UniProtKB/TrEMBL annotation:
Pfam families: Fe_hyd_lg_C, Fe_hyd_SSU, Fer2_4, Fer4_7, NADH-G_4Fe-4S_3
Organism the protein comes from: Paenibacillus wynnii
Domain 2Fe-2S ferredoxin-type: 1-76
Keywords: 4Fe-4S, Iron, Iron-sulfur, Metal-binding, Repeat
Gene3D superfamilies with a match to the protein in the record: 3.10.20.740, 3.30.70.20, 3.40.50.1780, Fe-only Hydrogenase (Larger Subunit), Chain L, domain 3 (3.40.950.10), Iron hydrogenase, small subunit (4.10.260.20)
Record-given protein name: Ferredoxin
GO molecular function, one term: iron ion binding
Residue ranges of every copy of the 4Fe-4S ferredoxin-type domain listed in the record: 135-168, 178-207
The keyword Metal-binding belongs to this UniProt entry's keyword annotation: yes
Residue ranges annotated for the 4Fe-4S His(Cys)3-ligated-type domain, each copy included: 76-115
InterPro entries: 2Fe-2S_ferredoxin-like_sf, 2Fe-2S_ferredoxin-type, 4Fe4S_Fe-S-bd, 4Fe4S_Fe_S_CS, Cytosolic_Fe-S_CAF, Fe_hydrogenase, Fe_hydrogenase_lsu_C, Fe_hydrogenase_ssu
Transmembrane parts of this sequence: none
Length: 572
């Protein structure tokens, strides 16, 4: 250990600890902007400077050394911090009142905390470019502060590297290769850059008004569905603690917004398990296209298309749960209700920005109708609820509509890494053995290790070696290990976001300081597993509404009709 003194307080820290971390352990708050734990340590903003001897040094990269004496709150420090922030503000689009990050902007917070009341340096503005081309991500360079947090998220964490620093000096920008529109880049739409951005330079491509217009249109029947991960995060937008489950309130709010039916994507997740489980069993029998890789994450699918196009046949042909559900709303449900599917609009509320891209993919339509018409993020739903003046926190819980509103516990765990694999194993084992299992928790695939493994043996002796990865950096590692022949599996679950959809790019944004104190993904995952335990039906194949769907409409899993409506194929 190393002995240091911060603001007169002696403390011992481990080798390698930065002064910023050491101070936070002592509850001394040093403001920072470009620092994001585990993602970015560039010391470019210089807001976190401290005084060490005669020098001012950025504390986020300064490592503790024996005997170091640090001052975090001197006149010189405060003035240096103010100057750094004022310089950022001078080149910033300061339309705070109409900015989507207003109230949650870290630049706003730091500027307020430092008592900056006037912006001294006003001059020429640098890059003002706005890029609306991506269906998922909107970039506004006029708000960018060049902290590099998005570059860390996209490059280091996701190993996509769609965006990076370009040009020099005053002209420095965050840009795609050759300054191309984001839509034409290698971006996979995961939105992790948005989650990292401290300001409003990166946001989702908003579709709120499209959905308001649909709700206003009296000739349309507007159905909404909500992803598993939304219910354990939406509450944060209304001040509830991280990990609060708000399923019932969310349903009540959606009804108040005027949707004709409020369905649960969990039904689609159960359906996915029936189709994908059957697909796994048939691939095990034929030995073809193994390992089967999950295809419900559109960020992962696009990553595969860009990086491993020769492996696309390994992807499951199943559409993702909300797409399956959209297809069932426009066929099975429409028929039951006697509504022309052309007059139905399906809106998906997702924790995900990539789902906006997925919703528009031509592979995901039937008879020239998209399965899903609009995708809103958790944040956009919160914005609509606020706009409508709904007192969310005090709403009484309501239940989803039938028949597409009923999902099992296996479905809800889709929202956390390992959930799809666990749900599939619960069903595949029981279907092949014909026995009901008492213990249904596959804890080996739970938790936040980057790569998790599990082996089960089916009654006929077939082994299913399963790998679960989350975060595209981990996915790349696993794919490369397989290419080198070091690893062999029969089944692989991949989610592009670290932690799974619970930390998707459309979820409530947590500022850097809070994310150091609270393990957001662990808290949201805990809520997901509690939601599973609270369900009476916890296996997809036991969901009575799924059984009815097959009896009344689809026939059997992987039937001809099921293939037509619920499966697709991605090609190079
Ligand atoms: Fe997901 Fe899925 S789990 S992909 O993360 O398979 O978005 O929550 O809805 O479709 O069910 C997202 C979450 C979600 C799908 C399901
Ligand atoms: Fe990179 Fe994902 Fe952002 Fe695209 S959405 S730029 S892939 S972090
Ligand atoms: Fe979207 Fe989930 Fe994939 Fe993230 S892990 S890109 S939230 S589907």
């Amino acid at each position: 250990t190393i002995n240091i003194m911060i603001d007169g307080i002696e403390t011992k820290v481990a080798k390698g600890t930065t002064i910023l971390e050491a101070a936070r352990d002592l509850d001394i708050h040093i403001p920072s902007l470009c620092y994001l734990k585990g993602v970015n340590h560039s010391s470019s903003c210089r807001v976190c400077v401290v005084e060490v001897g005669p020098r001012l040094i950025a504390s986020c990269t300064l490592k503790a050394e024996e005997g170091m004496k640090i001052q975090t709150n001197t006149k010189k420090v405060r003035e240096a911090r103010k100057t750094s922030v004022e310089l950022l503000l001078s080149d910033h689009d300061r339309e705070c009142l109409s900015c989507s990050r207003s109230g949650g902007c870290e630049l706003q917070t730091v500027s307020n905390d430092l008592n900056i009341r006037t912006v001294t340096y006003v001059g020429e503005k640098s890059n003002q470019e706005k890029d609306y081309t991506s269906p998922s991500i909107y970039r506004d360079a006029s708000k960018c502060i060049l902290c590099g947090r998005c570059v860390g998220a996209c490059g280091t964490m996701q190993t996509v590297g769609a965006i990076n620093f370009a040009k020099r000096g005053f002209d420095t920008v965050i840009s795609t290769a050759f300054g191309r529109p984001l839509e034409e880049s290698t971006c996979v739409n995961c939105g992790q850059c948005i989650m990292a951005c401290p300001v409003g330079a990166l946001t989702e491509h908003e579709n709120i008004n499209d959905v308001w217009n649909a709700l206003e249109n009296t000739s349309k029947y507007v159905v909404v569905q909500t992803a598993p991960a939304v219910r354990v995060a939406l509450g944060e937008e209304f001040g509830l603690p991280v990990g609060t489950r708000v399923t019932g309130k969310m349903v009540a709010a959606l009804r108040k917004l005027g949707f004709d039916k409020v369905f649960d994507t969990n039904f689609g997740a159960d359906l996915t398990i029936m189709e994908e489980g059957t697909e796994l069993i048939s691939r095990l029998n034929s030995g073809q296209n193994l390992p089967l890789m999950t295809s419900c994450c559109p960020g992962w699918v696009k990553f595969m298309e860009h990086n491993f196009p020769d492996r696309l046949d390994n992807l499951s042909t199943c559409k993702s749960p909300h797409e399956m559900e959209g297809a069932m709303v426009k066929s099975y449900f429409a028929k039951k209700m006697g509504i022309d599917p052309k007059n139905i609009i399906v809106v998906s509320i997702m924790p995900c920005t990539a789902k906006k891209f997925e919703g528009a993919r031509e592979e995901l339509s039937n008879e020239s109708m998209q399965d899903v018409d609009w995708v809103l993020t958790t944040r956009e739903l919160a914005a609509m609820i606020k706009e409508a003046g709904i007192d969310f926190v005090n709403l009484k819980g309501e239940a989803f509509d039938s028949p597409i509103g009923e999902g099992s516990g296996a479905a809800v765990i889709f929202g956390a890494t390992g959930g799809v694999a666990e749900a599939a194993l619960r069903t595949v084992f029981e279907i092949t053995s014909g026995k009901d299992l008492e213990t249904i928790e596959y804890t080996a695939v739970r938790g936040m290790d980057g790569i998790k493994e599990n082996v089960i043996e089916l009654p006929n002796g077939q082994k299913i070696r399963t790998a679960v990865v989350h975060g595209l950096g981990n996915a790349r590692k696993l794919m490369e290990a397989m290419e080198r022949g070091e690893k062999t599996y029969e089944f692989i679950e991949v989610m592009a976001c670290v932690g799974g959809c619970i930390t998707g790019g459309g979820q409530p944004i947590v500022d850097a300081r809070t994310s150091e104190r609270i393990d957001i993904k662990a808290e949201r995952a805990k809520a997901i597993y509690t939601e599973d335990e609270a369900q009476t039906v916890r296996k997809s194949h036991k969901n009575p509404y799924i059984k009815a769907l097959y009896d009344e409409f689809l026939g059997t899993p992987n039937s001809h009709l099921a293939h037509e409506l619920l499966h697709t194929h991605y090609v190079k």
